[in-house]
């Protein structure tokens, strides 16, 4: 009986190859916190958001300069306070309604009036005085002060006719057939399994060259890399050096080593304090001395960390902005040399003689023993911690590496209860945010509040430059100011930028021939400032529906074997039983 | 009988209550302030932190917090995950199905396999079959499930998917989906079966051996019954009962295996959710999975106990 | 008096030993255990611990086994052989300490519950049964999450969650010992609780506890590996579990680095099997009903 049932199963498995849509399958390793563009704060969520919704302006694929988004053109007033954007005719929402200036005004105004709508991107409208749409084609934004970052408003523009009917923004999931305007529209979302999107055939830039885009969840990058090797996936990013190396020499896989937007840093507690200057935490007093911090900068062997921990896939750190943004990246006039001997001499002269056990002692009699905190979730911290420890041992500083849970680390660093701590940031084309982290105002308001800063850096020179660059609308002058700020940061050493990670990506070349990278050359496919990578993907000539019919076959065989096996066993038992009973 | 059942159910309620209490106080032991985690990387002033603390009730006395927590649990409210920013109940709800599928299938196969091997082994005691199967079982039992999982996925190469429960590109419809899930489930369930079936086999084997020394079997044989009839009609049914109870007693072990196996194969179940909650750690989520996993194991045990009463006439009578 | 007792005990031990040596599996297990323990103890004497320091790693990353590195290298270029060797120390240390803790709690609870009886006993047995059915890894995970990372935490997490089965065993044995007439005699002669427990109950219960210990060690070593694999171990220590975690995290499977996966896993399997074989052999020796009628 059971065996017979199994035989019926086989013809039911349909011929899978018939008319499969051409699909790009992308690994997604991080969580999606929300598909509601007003709430989505995680990188993976904003990445999906960029595919669904255009921003007011976009960043060019080649050099990341502002280009057409929802708005095609813009101009600013002489006093730099009023910006007028023009939304051209012909762009459509996925339900066929036209995209207008009123949608833009609605989106920004919603964020300015509803605190829930400001959850993820509120900072972009923080300096707005008013946003109005006098007609369907024109948006006028007035700001309270001149702003350099008006062409970098990373806010998804939503359709007014849909969202004005949404009651409470914070409770709206936006995960079933949302109306959107980007190159892809959401078709199915299964939390922790996949996000399916369909190409928007009416996209104003032109339809994408394939039918569907699937983001498939993998819990670890390693699982995703295996899946790529097996042909279950087409595109993977965020690979570790070892995983990247393991794919070298495979003919059906193309590797992309790109300049990344992330950096790792070692923060030195140069004197944690509140906005009012009230000291908090229990940082080691010696780190308040800039000479000690500079000695640390000279003693750490950045090249060794890059070679051994990053597997060579990183660039030496200098300022807060990675070289992928050449307008703002700092090449210091005088870089700290890796020179433990000089660092030792400096410390000798600065009044930190070595004690009997080889550890230096400060003027207050306290030995230079630093705690170094690292994230339990980051393999980098664990390894780099060992390098920092052995480097600083060379100059008579003892380091106790403590790898702790991320929540605990956050708590210690917010409260200033650390000497050294690993940190890291991703940067945007506009440098304002990353620079703002190290201003006096980013420090916490009171000892028990939290600030955005991780260094607690507070330097009048830096703050003055920060204010100037924010209002400077001339690109060359602004670049110069930004570099001066980073030089100041570099000289004062509130943190040592260890390196800029390369973004390591790989894709199958038997299914997809090419992708648009940003910037070009040297740029990334995924995690761009835009959606060019997915949008510009070109299927390989031979690529038809690339689902695994062999997979279904194996699944079928397994089911059949189990059923037949069970059936045979039962039959044998039954026969044995009757034979036994007959006797 | 009724009183007995009531007593057992009372025990179950007390057990689950103990899990709830443990779940609450255990996760309050952790040093640190959850509001800091919620606000990391954001500029938040003291008033806002106080507001958050009040919103989540962290400023209330511990007893009151506990009352609120129990009240929430009764309504199915287990709080909000710090990292998913979604409710714990919703997250757990999504993951129950896959875990039940994996654990259920694997347990079923493991029990069948274990009992069969155990019976054969006991009957042909010290034969080559007995020695080999006991050896293999012990080997499986000694292996950490996650290690076996990693080995299997390395050895099988491209034969099976590297993880997950289904491909996104599988066409909709029952058969393609079911076959795809079956294909994905082969390695995880193989791993789980390999590490858990041994206990069923060993327990069955030794309890059958004890039965076989019993007097009534000698009597039965003396009456002229053939060996396999003696085995099937008398020894096996009697030995089966304690084994089945042990199957349920050991369900906790299967759950344990599921946590690491789901982690290795990215199987989107409760075990994987627990692992993901460890990274932060995401305490509300961890608390939720703890209460659900431990609570359901306790309930399963009571059910097994009751089933045992119903099945075994000797216990029923007393 | 005492000398007679000792003689009797010595005789019992040597007869048990003779019985034990007849069990081939148990003997093999014992020999393997001896070798592993000696190797683990010798590690600091015959190898150089600086090879464990990632900053001093001399080899290339992910090298397959060769004449220079017999077991290849890991993701940082350290020798897998050296890591496995040193890892055995932590795995054994944690396994044994956790077992001592677990068995101590179990014996205490079991003897107390059986000896004193009454409400206290009922309460203790309820707690024991509760811990018996509670999935111990789930509780151990919870414990090691809320306590600071370190060896102590792991030992505590394993010990506190795995004592229930010893407690039940010890209670049953204590009850049967206390039912014997000589206990009654001792009580009548004015022996206090301490006397009865210390002189009569414990000596009678301990052999069983010992058997139970060997099986508990096996469980504890797997539990350590599992907790470390889940990232709850001490990150500054090399154990077999932490090696497997690194293998999983850094892509040993995707690059088929079998040499990094096999040694620590086989280490766990060998140790656990050895302890299990010894435990089963002891069980057979002390429980004659299972002894074959060969």
TrEMBL record, chain A:
UniProt keyword annotations, A-Z: Membrane, Signal, Transmembrane, Transmembrane helix, Transport
One BP annotation, GO: peptide transport
One Pfam family this sequence matches: SBP_bac_5
Solute-binding protein family domain span: 66-437
Chain segments annotated as transmembrane: 552-572
Record has Transport as a keyword: yes
Sample GO molecular function, one term: peptide transmembrane transporter activity
A Gene Ontology cellular-component term: cell envelope
Protein's cellular compartments: Cell envelope
Family under the similarity heading: Belongs to the bacterial solute-binding protein 5 family.
Record-given protein name: ABC transporter substrate-binding protein
Classification lineage: Bacteria, Bacillati, Actinomycetota, Actinomycetes, Pseudonocardiales
UniProtKB/TrEMBL annotation, chain C:
Location in or out of the cell: Cell membrane
UniProt keyword Membrane present: yes
Listed Gene3D superfamilies: MetI-like
Any one of the GO CC terms: plasma membrane
Keywords: Cell membrane, Membrane, Transmembrane, Transmembrane helix, Transport
Membrane-spanning segments: 27-46, 90-111, 123-144, 150-170, 205-230, 257-282
Record-linked InterPro entries: BP-dependent_transpt_permease, MetI-like, MetI-like_sf, OppC_N
Domain called ABC transmembrane type-1: residue spans: 88-279
Chief location category: membrane
Pfam annotation, one family: BPD_transp_1
Protein name in the entry: ABC transporter permease
GO biological process: transmembrane transport
Membrane topology: Multi-pass membrane protein
Family of this protein: Belongs to the binding-protein-dependent transport system permease family.
Organism phylogeny: Bacteria, Bacillati, Actinomycetota, Actinomycetes, Pseudonocardiales
Domain of life: Bacteria
């Amino acid at each position: 009986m059971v065996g017979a049932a199994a035989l019926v199963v086989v013809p039911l498995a349909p011929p899978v190859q018939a008319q499969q849509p051409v699909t790009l399958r992308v690994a997604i390793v991080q969580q999606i916190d929300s598909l509601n563009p007003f709430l989505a704060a995680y990188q993976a969520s904003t990445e999906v958001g960029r595919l669904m919704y255009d921003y007011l302006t976009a960043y060019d694929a080649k050099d990341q300069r502002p280009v057409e988004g929802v708005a095609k053109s813009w101009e600013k007033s002489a006093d730099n306070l009023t910006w007028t954007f023009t939304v051209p005719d012909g762009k459509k929402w996925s339900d066929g309604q036209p995209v207008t200036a009123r949608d833009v005004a609605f989106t920004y105004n919603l964020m300015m009036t509803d605190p829930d709508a400001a959850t993820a991107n509120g900072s972009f409208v923080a300096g707005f005085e008013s946003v109005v749409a006098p007609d369907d084609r024109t948006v006028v934004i007035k700001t309270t002060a001149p702003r350099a970052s008006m062409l970098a408003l990373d806010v998804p523009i939503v359709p007014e006719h849909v969202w004005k009917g949404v009651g409470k923004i914070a409770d709206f999931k936006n995960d079933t057939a949302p109306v959107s305007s980007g190159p892809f529209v959401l078709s199915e979302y299964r939390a922790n399994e996949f996000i399916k999107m369909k190409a928007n055939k009416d996209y104003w830039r032109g339809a994408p060259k394939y039918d569907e885009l699937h983001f498939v969840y993998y819990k670890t990058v390693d699982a995703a890399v295996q899946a790529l090797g097996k042909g279950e996936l087409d595109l993977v990013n965020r690979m570790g050096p070892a995983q990247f190396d393991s794919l070298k020499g495979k003919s059906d896989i193309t590797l992309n080593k790109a300049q990344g937007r992330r950096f790792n840093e070692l923060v030195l507690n140069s004197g944690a304090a509140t906005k009012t200057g009230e000291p908090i935490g229990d940082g080691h007093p010696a780190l308040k001395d800039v000479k000690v911090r500079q000695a640390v900068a000279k003693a750490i062997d950045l090249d060794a960390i890059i070679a051994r921990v990053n597997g060579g896939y990183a660039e030496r750190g200098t300022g807060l902005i990675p070289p992928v943004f050449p307008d703002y990246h700092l090449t210091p006039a005088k870089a700290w040399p890796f020179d433990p001997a000089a660092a030792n001499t400096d410390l000798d002269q600065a009044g930190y003689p070595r004690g009997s056990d080889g550890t230096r002692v400060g003027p207050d009699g306290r030995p230079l023993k630093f705690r170094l905190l690292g994230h339990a979730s980051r393999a980098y911290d664990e390894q780099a911690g060992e390098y920092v420890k052995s480097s600083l041992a060379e100059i008579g500083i003892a380091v106790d590496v403590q790898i702790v849970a991320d929540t605990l680390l956050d708590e210690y660093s917010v409260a200033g209860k650390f000497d050294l701590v690993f940190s890291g940031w991703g940067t945007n084309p506009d440098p304002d945010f990353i620079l703002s982290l190290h201003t006096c105002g980013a420090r916490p308001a009171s000892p028990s509040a939290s600030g955005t800063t991780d260094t607690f850096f507070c330097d009048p020179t830096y703050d003055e430059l920060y204010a100037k660059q924010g209002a400077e609308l001339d690109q060359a002058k602004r670049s110069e100011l930004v570099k001066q700020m980073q030089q100041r940061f570099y000289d004062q050493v509130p943190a040592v930028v260890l390196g800029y990670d390369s973004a390591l990506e790989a894709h199958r070349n038997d299914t997809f021939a090419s992708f648009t990278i940003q910037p070009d050359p040297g740029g990334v496919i995924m995690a761009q400032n835009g959606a060019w990578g997915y949008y510009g993907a070109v299927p390989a000539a031979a690529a038809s529906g690339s689902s695994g019919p062999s997979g279904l076959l194996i699944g079928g065989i397994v089911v059949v074997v189990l059923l037949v096996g069970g059936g045979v066993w039962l039959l044998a038992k039954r026969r044995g039983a009757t034979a036994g009973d007959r006797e | 009988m009724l009183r007995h059942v009531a007593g057992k159910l009372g025990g179950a309620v007390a057990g689950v209550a103990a899990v709830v209490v443990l779940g609450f106080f255990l996760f309050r032991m952790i040093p640190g302030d959850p509001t800091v985690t919620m606000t990391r990387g954001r500029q938040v002033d003291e008033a806002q932190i106080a507001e958050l603390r009040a919103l989540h009730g962290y400023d209330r006395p511990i007893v009151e917090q506990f009352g609120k927590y129990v009240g929430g649990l009764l309504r199915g409210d287990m709080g909000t995950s710090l990292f998913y920013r979604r409710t714990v109940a919703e997250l757990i709800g999504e993951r129950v199905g896959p875990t039940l599928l994996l654990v259920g299938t694997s347990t079923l196969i493991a029990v069948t396999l274990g009992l069969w091997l155990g019976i054969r082994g006991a009957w042909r005691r010290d034969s080559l079959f007995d020695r080999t199967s006991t050896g293999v079982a012990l080997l499986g039992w000694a292996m950490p499930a996650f290690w076996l999982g990693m080995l299997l996925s390395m050895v099988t190469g491209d034969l099976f998917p590297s993880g997950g429960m289904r491909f996104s590109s599988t066409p909709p419809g029952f058969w393609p989906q079911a076959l795809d899930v079956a294909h994905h489930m082969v390695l995880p369930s193989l791993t789980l079966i390999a590490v858990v079936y041994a206990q069923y086999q060993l327990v069955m084997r030794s309890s059958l051996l004890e039965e076989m020394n019993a007097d009534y079997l000698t009597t039965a044989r003396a009456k002229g019954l053939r060996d396999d009839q003696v085995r099937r009609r008398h020894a096996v049914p009697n030995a089966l009962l304690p084994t089945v109870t042990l199957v349920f007693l050991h369900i906790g072990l299967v759950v344990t295996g599921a946590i690491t196996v789901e982690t290795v194969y990215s199987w989107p179940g409760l075990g994987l959710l627990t692992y993901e909650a460890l990274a932060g750690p995401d305490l509300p989520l961890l608390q939720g999975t703890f209460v659900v996993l431990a609570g359901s194991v306790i309930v399963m045990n009571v059910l097994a106990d009751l089933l045992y009463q119903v099945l075994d006439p000797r216990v029923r009578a007393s | 008096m005492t000398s007679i007792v000792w003689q009797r005990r010595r005789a019992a031990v040597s007869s048990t030993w003779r019985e034990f040596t007849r069990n081939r599996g148990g003997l093999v297990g014992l020999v393997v255990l001896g070798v592993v323990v000696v190797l683990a103890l010798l590690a600091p004497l015959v190898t150089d611990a600086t090879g464990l320091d990632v900053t001093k790693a001399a080899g290339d990353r992910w090298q397959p086994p060769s004449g220079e590195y017999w077991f290849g290298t890991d993701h940082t270029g350290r020798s897998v052989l050296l890591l496995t060797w040193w890892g055995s120390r932590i795995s054994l240390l944690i396994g044994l300490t956790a077992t001592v803790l677990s068995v101590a709690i179990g014996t205490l609870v079991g003897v107390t519950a059986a000896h004193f009886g009454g409400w206290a006993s009922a309460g203790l047995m309820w707690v024991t049964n509760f811990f018996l059915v509670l999935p111990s890894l789930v509780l151990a995970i919870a414990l090691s999450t809320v306590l600071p990372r370190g060896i102590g935490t792991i030992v505590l997490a394993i010990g506190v969650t795995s004592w229930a089965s010893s407690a039940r065993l010890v209670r049953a044995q204590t009850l049967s010992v206390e039912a014997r007439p000589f206990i009654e005699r001792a009580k009548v002669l004015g022996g206090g609780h301490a006397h009865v427990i210390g002189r009569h109950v414990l000596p009678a219960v301990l052999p069983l506890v010992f058997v139970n210990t060997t099986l508990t060690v096996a469980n504890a070593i797997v539990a350590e590996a599992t907790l470390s694999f889940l990232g709850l171990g001490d990150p500054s220590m090399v154990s077999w579990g932490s090696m497997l975690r690194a293998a999983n995290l850094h892509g040993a499977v995707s690059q088929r680095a079998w040499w990094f996966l096999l040694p620590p896993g086989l280490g766990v399997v060998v140790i656990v099997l050895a302890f299990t074989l010894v435990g089963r052999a002891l069980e057979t020796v002390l429980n004659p009903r299972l002894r074959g009628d060969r």
